[in-house]
Design a protein that fits this description.
The chain has 253 residues and is an alpha+beta fold. It has one domain: Glutathione S-transferase Yfyf (Class Pi), Chain A, domain 2 (Up-down Bundle). It contains 9 helices and 5 strands; from the N terminus they run E-E-H-E-H-E-E-H-H-H-H-H-H-H. Strands 1-3-2-4-5 form a 5-stranded mixed sheet, with helices on one face.
Length: 253
């Protein structure tokens, strides 16, 4: 396995514009600075294809954790299996921090919220339970969506025909987003700031844009808000610079 380590930049660089993703970022309350601790590292796979890597990376950035990226090339056999949904366990991303090693994405989110309380989970007990339930649903479900619409930030597939089974997953996600935006007032799923739920569903946002999934105006606006986050712009810019492609996920229709 070839490992490349690089420091995550402190500032975000905007990505090249793509159809359907341009938006001005909403005003978000400044994130509370995280306390300094031991050096942290986060293992990642492909930024173009790996939805789990995006989730863990975005959680760490939203929580204010400084970390080094440990990049596992997509031609690594284990990383490739996970990207192609052929692995029974998701071992990327993996967070190492202060003597702790956490490799499950949802567990990473819980750990980071303990590291910087309130940075990812709602403070209100009822809202927090709701958030955990929806994140758990994304963590363990939506298999048809994952198979039918693999994450591919460099791809653009207008007129893409969605499988019937994936349509049920899309309808459920649309219902989740609509309920959260109505209940907590937006602009993000649980209020004024992006948090754990937004990080968990961020790869779905990119899928909906890549495959031009029709959405109601308020949900399309939510997708634009997520993509316009500085952290997302930084990730997308890096994904576009990746030299490696995975043929199985570069569909041509």
């Amino acid at each position: 396995m070839v490992i490349a380590t690089r420091k995550t930049p402190a500032s975000a660089r905007p990505a090249p514009k793509r159809s359907g993703t341009a938006a001005s970022s909403p005003k978000v309350a400044p994130r509370r600075a995280a306390s300094k601790g031991a050096a942290a590292s986060l293992s990642l796979s492909s930024k173009n294809y790996s939805s789990w890597s995006l989730r863990g990376w975005l959680m760490a950035r939203l929580a204010g954790l400084e970390f080094a990226e440990v990049v596992v090339p997509p031609d690594d056999a284990d990383a490739r299996k996970e990207i192609l949904l052929l692995s029974p366990s998701i071992l990327v991303p993996c967070l190492t921090h202060d003597g702790v090693k956490v490799w499950d994405t949802l567990a990473i989110g819980e750990y980071l919220d303990e590291f910087n309380p309130g940075s990812l989970l709602p403070r209100d007990r009822v809202a927090r339970a709701h958030c955990r339930a929806l994140c758990g649903e994304m963590h363990s479900g939506f298999a048809s969506l994952r198979s039918a619409l693999p994450m591919n930030l460099k791809g653009d597939f207008p007129g893409f025909k969605v499988w019937a089974r994936a349509e049920g997953d899309i309808e459920r996600i649309v219902a989740i987003w609509r309920e959260c935006l109505a209940t907590y007032g937006g602009p993000f799923l649980f209020g004024a700031r992006p948090g754990l739920a937004d990080a968990m569903y961020a790869p779905v946002v990119t899928r909906f844009l890549t495959y031009h999934v029709p959405l109601a105006p308020e949900l399309a606006a939510y997708c634009r808000r997520i993509v316009a986050l500085p952290e997302m712009q930084e990730w997308i810019a890096a994904a576009r610079l990746e030299p490696d492609d995975i043929d199985e996920l570069d569909m041509d229709f």
